[in-house]
Amino acid sequence: MEKLKKTCHILNEIQNNCILTFDIFKNQIFFDIDYEAIVGAVPLWIKDAGNSAECPFSKEIFERFVRKNNNILTHKFLYYYDCDMLVSSLQDRFNIIDNLLHSFYAKFPVESKYKMEDFDSVTMSYSPMDVNSFACINSLFIFLSSSLARRLCEALLKKKPDGLSK
User: Fold this and answer.
1) Which of 22, 79, 76, 82 has the alpha carbon at shortest distance from 51?
2) Is the pTM of this model over 0.85?
3) Quick one: pLDDT band at residue 66, thresholds 50, 70, 90?
4) CA–CA distance from 123 to each of 43, 120, 135, 139 (Å)?
5) What is the mean pLDDT of the chain?
6) What is the C-alpha to C-alpha distance for residues 49 and 42, in angstroms, rounded to an integer?
7) Which positions ≥6 away from 90 have C-beta within 8 Å?
8) Which residues, 6+ apart, have CB-to-CB distance to 30 below 8 Å?
């Protein structure tokens, strides 16, 4: 159980770092602008178009709006909201991993109540619990491997905000 607690603690630390990453992106991108003073005036299409399935904008309309608003501030906000979506998706992924771990260990204890020496043969069978546990483990591997997108996040952090209007 101690290993599960440590793992969950690590996942919580990652989530906390995601929260800090939002601020890092904001500070790096808007280093020369008072973000809080202007964020309320940012048109919704800048935040939603391209990032939300609920936005009714087509790609062509979005690109037209970007061309008509081709300035550094628009591009900074577009870049910021892309980074925000990336960090949010990582945060969601780690939250799911945490829940999958809890689900898995609810079915399989962290430590077996039996010792390997107690067994002298092997019997194989599948139960609904086995299938559920396999699905949990499979999902864990998928979410963990796709979390390698963090490298992309690191690359974005190193990118300077100049050249955003290109």
Assistant:
1) 82
2) no
3) very high
4) 63, 10, 21, 26
5) 79
6) 13
7) 18, 147, 149, 150, 153
8) 76, 80
Please give the structure tokens belonging to residue 81.
Answer: 């909201």
CB 84 within 8 A of CB 22: yes
Q: Which two tokens stand for residue 94?
A: 């780690």
Residue 38 has pLDDT above 90, yes or no: yes
d(CA 26, CA 42) in angstroms, rounded, equals 14
CB of 25 closer than 8 Å to CB of 85: no
Six-digit token string for 30: 């808007």
pLDDT, residue 166, reads: 43
The C-alpha atoms of residue 133 and residue 108 are separated, in whole angstroms, by 8
Cβ 71 vs Cβ 43: under 8 Å: no
- Distance between CA atoms of residues 7 and 14, nearest Å: 11
Report DSSP state, residue 3. Answer: H
pLDDT of the residue at 131: 75
